[in-house]
Structures are given as C-alpha cells and as structure tokens.
Amino acid sequence: MSYLERAITDGHARLTGESKQQKILYVAVNHTERYADPEEQVRAEFWAELIYRYGYEPARIGVEITVPDRTPSDRADLVVFRDDERKKPYAVIECKADGVTDAEFNQAVEQSCGNGTWAKFRANYVGVVAGMTRRFFDFATATLRRQGGHDALVARIYGKPIKSLNS
User: Fold this and answer.
1) Rg of the chain (C-alpha set)
2) Who is most buried in 93, 113, 138, 148, counting CB within 10 A?
3) 108-142 as b/e, with b when 16 or more CB fall inside 10 Å?
C-alpha cells in the first residue's frame, strides 16, 4: 500500500471524481486540487510520505501556501510547520511531475530556495521532489543533505535526517 493509499484509508485525504475530473481533498487543511495533474500526484504521495514516513501531523503540512513578500503572489507546494497555528515554517517543498528535465528540476530548486530563505519563509529545510528525484538543502547549516548517494529527505519529526531512503 502506498503512503497516499494509506492516507486515504485513514481519512487524511479523499479522492473524488474520475479521470481528468478527479480531485484530491487534503482533509486536515481543507484544500482541494485537481489530482489528474501529474505534479499533483507527486505532491499528494510526498505529502502522505511526510505523514507516515517522517511523522509530521497532517494539520501542520500546508498545501499551496502563499509565499510572503512575493509579487505577484507565489505559492509553495508544501510547507511543514513547527506549530499548530502554522506560523513557523520548518520545511518548504516544491513538487514537480516525475520525469521533468534537468533544466526544469534545477529551476524548481531555484524557486524553492528563493521561497524558503530567511527573507520569505525562513525555513530550516528547502526541497524539491519530482518522483524519486529529490534534493533537500539544510538552510540552518547551509549544506546539501546527501547520504548514501541519495539526497536525504526532510528530518524525521523536526530532528536529524534519517540515515537512508529505506529507514
């Protein structure tokens, strides 16, 4: 069972409609998006991974959060918050469809880093997820998180990054 299937079973998300009209509701934050979009499918699966693999509360994972001080307004795909009021960002994550080009992925890295920096969200971690192509930066120590040949993922429950993709 995938992380998203588990989230749906547990009532954290709901899929409605069919084919190109299918939508996903992120229940805890009452946000709906068009699930037929390949980028949304990546976001939904990683959102559920944040819950089940990393232990973050669904209510602390914002979806399509307006980036402060951006004109025109820009939105971050996922923001993990430290607090229930969702005022203290911990990680800002940009999601792209699986299989994007290197140029598109690198542009997403630039966008994510721009959104997550001290002048915007002031997040500790910034990341880009495009299927299993993932890159995360630790802005608290200004390093790229790499372990075992793969980019390490967001830290488990606001702590140190996990040791491998198979933890």
Assistant:
1) 15
2) 93
3) bbebbbbbbeeebbebbbbbbbbbebbbbbbbeee
pLDDT in tens, 123-134: 888 889 999 888
Confidence of residue 154 (pLDDT cuts 50, 70, 90): low
Q: Which of helix, strand or coil describes residue 104?
A: helix
Contacts 24+ apart (CB under 8 A), 75-83: 76/112, 76/115, 76/116, 76/121, 77/43, 78/43, 78/46, 78/47, 78/50, 79/121, 79/123, 80/50, 80/56, 80/125, 80/154, 82/158
Q: Do the domain assignments include residue 163?
A: no
Amino acid at 147: Q
Q: How many domains does the chain have?
A: 1
Query: Per the domain annotation, does 133 fall within a domain?
Result: yes
Q: Which residue has the higher pLDDT, 30 or 155?
A: 30
Digit-coded pLDDT (tens) for 57-73: 999 999 999 888 766 67
Beta-sheet pairing, 23-26 with 31-34: antiparallel
Tell me, what CATH number does 140's domain have?
A: 3.90.1570
The parent domain of residue 65 ranges over 3-158
